[in-house]
Amino acid sequence: MQLSIAKRSSPGKGKDAKSASSAQRILFTVDVDDSSSVDDLKKAIAKKNKALYPERQRLTTGEAKSILEAGIALSKYNLKDGDTVYLKDLGPQIGWQTVFYIEYIGPIIFHYLVYNFPSIFYGRAFEHSEIQRRVYILVMGHFIKRELETAFVHRFSHGTMPLLNVFKNSFHYHILSGLNLAYWVYGPSSAQGTALAAKLGNPTIIAIFTGVFLFAELSNLSAHITLRNLRPPGTRVRRIPYGYGFDMVSCPNYLFETLAWVSVAAMTRNLAAVLFLVVSTAQMYIWAIKKHKQYRREFPDYPKSRKAMFPLIA
């Protein structure tokens, strides 16, 4: 199979040139045959320019700038010899699995340090209360679970993401759910013997929200396993998920994760926990809406009764 690319020296003139330039796109004309795929095209581009390895490329075509998805035949986009393809350099990439490892290790380190070395962070040692001990165990368990899921459960449809994005993503986890949450939850204001510790230390309330947290974590794991089983190893296959949680919403993993952090916020009644809950839920809802729309666009028979993240609501 032969596939050749001729790089244009200029995007043209007028309005089209301005839009192409502002998007930092490079234009190519392509010669294709019936068996050519988007992957073949990306490999051919990488041959011409080794710095533009396939994961670094975003290819679009047509006036609507439709994205050419990896693994799809070029014929599905009605591309023919001499047609124009736009290439955007996404910059240096990093593997999603590595990104997840980096994101989740931050909270583990910060919670461990703040909880176990209070004299460094608060200037004095003190005994932790029951609510602090319980939250420490639950939060550490949550992020250790996430690391183990990254290693043994997740299968990624996209192999990489832009390297610079890892700093933005890590801020969310390292600071909001890591340092900020740990500092305010494990501090002396709710340590053993304080009025706040007595107020938060009701054993029944702690047991109820611990149960909610564990239910949410196990349900979240179940959703991740369902998604894993939809995609054979080494493929980008996408199918409609069914079963526990998925009959109500498109992203039950986000729903259950939200429920876990609701229980932490309710147990601690701490503004740092509420802040992380609000920010993380808003971000997961944005992701859920995007995935929900993608499911509906990709699968004509997608269940119409499903909501994106919150049953019966949205």
Automatic annotation (TrEMBL):
Pfam families in UniProt: Steroid_dh
What are the protein's GO molecular function terms?
A: very-long-chain enoyl-CoA reductase activity
Primary localization class, coarse:
endoplasmic reticulum
The membrane topology of this protein is:
Multi-pass membrane protein
State the Gene3D superfamilies in the record. 1.20.120.1630, Phosphatidylinositol 3-kinase Catalytic Subunit, Chain A, domain 1 (3.10.20.90)
Listed transmembrane segments: 206-223, 244-264, 270-289
Ubiquitin-like domain residues are 1-87
- Which terms under GO biological process does the entry name? very long-chain fatty acid biosynthetic process
- Which PANTHER family would you find in this protein's record? 3-OXO-5-ALPHA-STEROID 4-DEHYDROGENASE, VERY-LONG-CHAIN ENOYL-COA REDUCTASE
Which family would the database say this protein is a member of?
A: Belongs to the steroid 5-alpha reductase family.
**Protein name per Swiss-Prot or TrEMBL:** 3-oxo-5a-steroid 4- dehydrogenase
Source organism: Coemansia spiralis
